[in-house]
């Protein structure tokens, strides 16, 4: 899970890892050194006439800074946040579409076929739990260990042994796609047995399975690659700087 930036303003600004300060501290140190040298020279080394002339140049440069499109930057940042949030809402994968196709195409009332449909449904829900456990803290609190998956009935003990034997050297939270491979194998076997009578039926099921998997994959990308903290800190500082000016305009 990525680091959450939805914290208080001061804590957000003073985060170090991946922060604005970590990126510019050397340049900031040089700037502050030059600033205080010029400041000391202005106060103790210039005459009154030289100070007045220096102030004119300061006001001229200060006027140039107002040409920076900070409002555009803030608008772009808000638009990016809203688009990212809405994309995450759209990418939430529900098993309904996949299971509709499974129910329609894997036909039969014999015990074996019914078990196949129920197992595919269970694997689909198991996939969502494994994926969300790496993204959502609430799901992780509900299923903190693999044993909780067995206790809830989402996975049998035999399946747990098989699950743990796959890619042992990989972080267990990255194995959310394993049940999807099991579903794919079951679909292919149904086609080989004749339960699926045409390749088009197998293609429809595999496309639905791919769509279901792709939603979780895209959510993982959003979770792994967060909005850079540097950009968030810069926008937060801009917002705090421009709030007083906005209030003054409204008061006028």
TrEMBL record:
| A GO molecular-function descriptor | chloride channel activity
Q: Which GO terms describe its cellular component?
A: chloride channel complex; plasma membrane
> What is the residue range of the signal peptide feature?
none
What coarse category fits the chief subcellular location reported for this protein? membrane
Pfam families from the UniProt entry? Bestrophin
Chain segments annotated as transmembrane: 20-38, 68-86
Checking InterPro entries in the record gives: Bestrophin (IPR000615), Bestrophin-like (IPR021134)
- Cell compartments where the protein resides: Cell membrane; Membrane
Please indicate if the UniProt record lists Ion transport as a keyword. yes
Q: Does the keyword Ion transport apply?
A: yes
Membrane topology is: Multi-pass membrane protein
Say what the protein does.
Forms chloride channels.
Q: Which PANTHER family match?
A: BESTROPHIN, BESTROPHIN-4
Q: What is this protein called?
A: Bestrophin homolog
Which organism was this protein described from?
Caenorhabditis nigoni
Q: Which gene encodes it?
A: Cni-best-23
